[in-house]
Design brief:
Elements (H helix, E strand, L loop, with lengths): L1 H13 L10 H13 L11 H8 L9 H11 L11 H10 L4 H21 L6 H27 L2 H6 L5 E6 L2 E7 L8 E5 L7 E13 L1 H4 L5 E2 L15 E2 L4 E13 L5 H11 L6 H30 L4 H14 L5 H17 L3 E3 L2 H8 L3 E4 L11 E7 L2 E4 L5 H5 L2 H12 L4 E2 L5 E2 L2 H13 L2 H7 L2 E5 L7 E8 L4 E8 L1 H6 L1 E5 L4 E3 L2 H16 L3 E9 L23 E10 L6 H10 L3 E5 L4 H11 L8 E4 H5 L3 H10 L3 E4 L3 H13 L4 E5 L5 H6 L2 E5 L5 H6 L2 E3 L4 H41 L8 H11 L1 H6 L23 H29 L4 H4 L3 H4 L7 E2 L5 E2 L1 H29 L7 H4 L4 H19 L3 H4 L14 H20 L1 H10 L2
Parallel strand pairs: 9-21, 9-24, 17-20, 21-23, 22-23, 24-25, 25-26
Antiparallel strand pairs: 1-2, 1-3, 3-7, 4-5, 4-6, 4-7, 8-26, 10-11, 10-20, 12-13, 14-15, 15-16, 16-19, 17-18, 19-20, 27-28
């Protein structure tokens, strides 16, 4: 006992406002996180109350002294939830601007500006192309970074939603004086607090005294049933202990007095909030893919740059000129349009998902759902309707299933008339004038059922209440006495746990008679109870007793405290089985998910029998022997044992789990290499939602905390929507591959001309500004519009992707070894044709660059002996670059059609993607604007082309199309031993 208590004291020291341990800020935060991940270890709910008072230095009547409370408040701090170390918006913004592929773009921008500065100081008339390109790259990075910042900034506000759950004032006793306006933030351990119906519990309390005290713990445990709390013996697991009321829980009924045993960060709510704020989400699969792509492209660009550097120096170029060459080749290798394309594609998909009741907060989470391998689903509200209903009735030795039984059948049972009266009267639920029922979920379900058969309002008017004994966890029953206005006699009605009600019953209402309650009858009722329990139902029993008019005449003073009326020898009326029914569409949704290779596990705070029954009904479990692990068993498991259990058992249901255990399950699945999606609606789900690869909250029943923490919100609280999201996520990944392939193909004809310019000394075939126009102009719309392509038919028949990267070796081979080379050939063909038409044949262009770019040389001769001035040469160069640019645009149009599918023929798919069709037309329009509009063509270094030059690339577009159709045909039919499949199927 002492070790645990001292341990709690030591933990409290770690959460003090100042840092008495002398730890560094990062170490302290890490230590706090590790503590919060552990189960609550304390015995303050187990030791006798007198011993607890002595330990806390308090008195149950007078409370703490004001001086002592002030000392504790100054030492341990306010009873509030303190956020994890926040780095401020500036640091968060900087991090958003410099992560992922943006680092490569920043590098490109810096290199462009460096190249401009070098030219500025070494040339009399430096080109501003690199300056413009650098500025545009910075703008692209800033726009994408700001978008990411807004997403992250919202997520950093999690702790505020927790603090919104905390009440402002409380009723506290200090110095023997009760103050009803004591600020909750001023409460300390040892304070005596009074709670009434409607109050929010202001700290973790050990109950001293209570009457009919019930609290709604749904935000912490996930259970929608209000639970009684009283001064009883505690259980080892404090979460299930009935003598503790937790911070932020709502008092539904009754009143209580309690002593504060935990405040602020060390309360059950504080631990959940601390975990949710301090845990760092796992990087999404898309983020990891982009990081990997960035590393590969960086290595490729640097390697190529080093090659160019050594080649240039070997060819005798000056060092500064070599530096500019290296910068140019590195920048040419950066696909500037990739990041905005990915961001725009994900944004468009997120907008489409809103129409499908799925609100996407974190864009990358949509793609992550496509890679999801495991779903840890909550039960209440996600798999079930979150509405308790009467499912079975046991009356007159018969079991009736409500959904298949007519009311006429029930009315023929004599006991049913008495049951309706008992159910309507023995209830704390209230009925509003409009007929809506308010109160405990179980009582609401019973009254709603009675509404189908009779009017409980009328019944209550005929039998006004005289007195009642509220339900409590000790007696496990509720009794009320009513006056029968027709017969002027009192009737006692009882509702409660079946075993308690049965023990107090002398007779049992059978078919048309009353049978003596004997061993045989007991066995019949116990069998009915067991059958209902096996289906996960919550069972309540009902009984009544007509009181003797002579002993208890109208006006008799009944005393519920000092009971002066019989509570034994009742008539047992029957049993009611209540259940939160599964959603109708969930079973088929789970079948689809499992067919797609995704494992579904239930993780709930509910009873194991209920969890197993629901798992069987919705298809998470296919046999009654499915492995059920309770929170108690999980508490005794080592991480390795949990890992092995997950490996060994495919169908697993976790029941009675705590928030830290949900987190433990998620981390164990991730340790297996799974991409984990977690669904939840309560505060207790926040840590698991935060840690998961994809956190999914409920839009209707979800708490503000779960919505703030999650990546995706299901607006209809429907598990079936997850299936739609998974299909959409897989479609996104497929379409992103198509978009990236489309972008990378144009990267090849952008890189090789720069190489030829450096190594073969030809006039530059493609300028920096035209490269920019391709990457961020003509290519953008078609690349983004590929996100609108429909999912391929087998998208949900494939297993989740594990080793299928976003940019694979086969894509690189297709891009750099096939289609990209054809585009380059088209561009160079147009370049050489335009040069040749003006007198410069191809053989003369090699080695001419130095004289070509020299302003002092005004007599460069072409193949026909004509002399060209510097201005004339540069005008011809602009025309050649414009022709090369147009050739790329024309081949990219074909490329856009090719990239619609990865292996299906375009003739099978058709051109139904209107966004892509408009995008291809937009490419031509933009190319015309860039070439023909005065001012714009000067800015982009282009030239008004002759009409015939637009058709120079057509033979190459035809070759691209025929080659790709042949390639896809070979892939579909696995021709040549599947050679094309291995080589180019990305």
């Amino acid at each position: 006992m002492n070790s645990r208590t001292s341990s709690l004291s030591s933990i409290s020291d770690l959460f003090r406002p100042n840092n008495p341990k002398g730890l560094r800020s990062r170490d302290l935060s890490c230590t706090r996180l590790n503590i919060l991940k552990k189960e609550i270890q304390t015995d303050t709910h187990l030791i006798p109350l007198q011993e607890l008072y002595s330990l806390l230095g308090t008195d149950p009547v007078t409370g703490l002294s004001s001086e002592r409370a002030k000392e504790l408040l100054e030492y341990y701090g306010s009873n509030t939830l303190t956020p994890a170390t926040q780095h401020g918006w500036a640091r968060l913004l900087l991090k958003s601007l410099c992560t992922g592929f943006s680092i490569l773009i920043w590098l490109g921008a810096i290199l462009c500006l460096t190249a401009y500065l070098i030219e500025l100081f070494t040339k009399p008339h430096p080109s501003t192309d690199n300056l413009y390109l650098g500025c545009v790259l910075i703008a692209v990075d800033v726009i994408c970074g700001l978008f990411s910042f807004l997403q992250n900034y919202k997520s950093s506000k999690i702790m505020k939603t927790f603090n919104n759950m905390i009440p402002v004032t409380s009723c506290c006793v200090r110095d023997g004086i009760t103050n009803t306006e004591t600020p909750v933030s001023n409460l300390v351990r040892g304070d005596i607090v009074h709670i009434r119906a409607g109050d929010v519990i202001p700290a973790d309390l050990r109950i001293i005294d209570s009457k009919g005290f019930k609290v709604d713990n749904s935000s912490l445990t996930g259970e929608c049933v209000a639970v009684p709390r009283s001064n009883t013996e505690g259980t080892p697991n404090i979460i299930e202990s009935q003598n503790v009321a937790f911070f932020s829980a709502l008092c539904v009924e009754g009143w209580a007095t309690g002593v504060v045993i935990c405040c602020g960060d060390l309360t059950a709510l504080g631990r959940i909030a601390g975990l949710a704020a301090r845990l760092r989400p796992v990087p999404s699969p898309l983020s990891r893919e982009i990081h990997q792509l960035m590393r590969y492209m960086s290595a490729w660009a640097v390697g190529l740059g080093l090659f160019i550097a050594s080649a240039s120096l070997g060819l005798g170029y000056p060092f500064m000129q070599t530096t500019i060459f290296v910068i140019g080749i590195v920048v040419a290798n950066i696909p500037e349009g990739l990041q905005p394309t990915v961001t725009a594609s994900l944004t468009l998909t997120a907008k489409q998902m809103v129409a499908k009741n799925c609100l996407v907060k974190n864009l990358e989470a949509m793609e992550a759902l496509g890679a999801c391998t495991t779903i840890c689903s909550d039960k209440t509200g996600t798999l079930t309707e979150n509405k308790m209903r009467v499912r079975h009735l046991w009356l007159g030795n018969q079991t009736f299933e409500v959904s298949t039984t007519s009311l006429d059948q029930l009315r023929n049972i004599i006991a049913f008339q008495s049951f309706k009266i008992c159910g309507a009267l023995c209830s704390s639920a209230s009925i509003a004038p409009d007929g809506n029922v308010h109160g405990d979920a179980s009582e609401k379900a019973i009254l709603n059922f009675i509404f189908d058969c009779d009017n409980p309002i009328t019944v209550r008017k005929k039998y006004p209440k005289v007195t009642e004994i509220p339900f409590n966890s000790v007696n496990k029953y509720q009794i009320s006495i009513h006056l029968d206005m027709l017969n002027l006699r009192h009737i006692l009605v009882m509702k409660g746990a079946p075993e308690v009600v049965l023990d107090r019953s002398a007779t049992v209402a059978m078919d048309n008679t009353e049978a003596i309650n004997n061993k045989e009858i007991n066995e019949l009722i116990n069998n009915a109870i067991e059958n209902m329990a096996n289906t996960g139902e919550r069972i309540l029993a009902f009984a009544d007793l007509n009181l003797d008019v002579n002993k208890y005449p109208p006006g008799f003073e009944f005393d519920a405290e000092e009971i002066n009326f019989p509570t034994e020898n009742l008539r047992f009326l029957g049993l009611v089985g209540l259940i939160d029914p599964p959603r109708k569409e969930v079973r088929s949704a789970i079948e689809r998910v499992r067919a797609a290779g995704v494992r579904v596990m239930m993780v709930t705070g509910d009873h194991p029998a209920t969890a197993r029954a629901v798992a069987l009904e919705v298809g998470i479990a296919t046999t009654p022997q499915c492995h059920v692990i309770t929170g108690t068993e999980l508490r005794n498991m080592t991480p390795d044992l949990l890992y092995l259990t997950l490996e060994k058992n495919y169908e697993i249901v976790f029941a009675r789990t705590s928030p830290t255990q949900k987190l433990q399950i998620v981390e164990a699945c991730q340790r297996q290499g799974s991409v984990v999606a977690v669904t939840g609606d309560g505060v207790n789900d926040a840590p698991a939602l935060r840690r998961a690869d994809i956190g999914i909250s409920m839009g209707i029943t979800g708490s503000q905390v779960s919505k703030q923490t999650a990546d995706i919100i299901l607006m209809d609280d429907n598990f079936a929507t997850i299936v739609t999201a998974i299909e959409e996520g897989r479609k996104i990944f497929d379409n992103l591959k198509k978009s990236i392939c489309y972008i990378l193909i144009s990267n090849v004809p952008e890189i090789i001309p720069v190489l030829m310019f450096i190594l073969f000394s030809i006039p530059l075939p493609l300028g920096v500004m035209t490269i920019l126009c391709i990457d961020l102009g003509t290519d953008m719309w078609p690349a983004v519009s590929l996100a609108h392509e429909n999912a391929e038919r087998d998208v949900m028949a494939r297993p989740p992707r594990r080793s299928d990267p976003l940019v694979s070796c086969s894509m690189i081979r297709l891009v750099y070894g096939h289609l990209g080379l054809i585009e380059f050939a088209a561009g160079m063909f147009a370049y050489f044709i335009v040069m040749a038409e003006h007198g410069f044949y191809p053989e003369q262009l090699f080695g001419i660059r130095q004289r070509w770019d020299n302003e002092a040389v005004s007599d460069v001769q072409d193949s026909l002996g004509q002399e060209w001035t510097y201005a004339e040469r540069k005008e011809l160069e602009r025309a050649c670059q414009a022709a090369y640019f147009v050739a790329i645009v024309m081949t990219q149009i074909t490329n856009g059609i090719i990239c619609k599918t990865r292996y299906n023929s375009i003739f099978h798919v058709g051109m139904k993607n209107k966004a892509l069709n408009f995008g291809l037309v937009f490419e031509i329009i933009l190319a015309c604007v860039v070439c023909y509009v005065p001012g714009i063509n000067s800015f982009f270094r282009t030239y008004p082309l002759r009409l015939k030059w637009w058709f120079l690339a057509l033979p190459f577009t035809a070759l691209m199309f025929v080659f790709d159709e042949f390639r896809k045909y070979c892939i579909r039919n696995e021709t040549f031993g599947g050679w094309f499949n291995k080589l180019t199927l990305y």
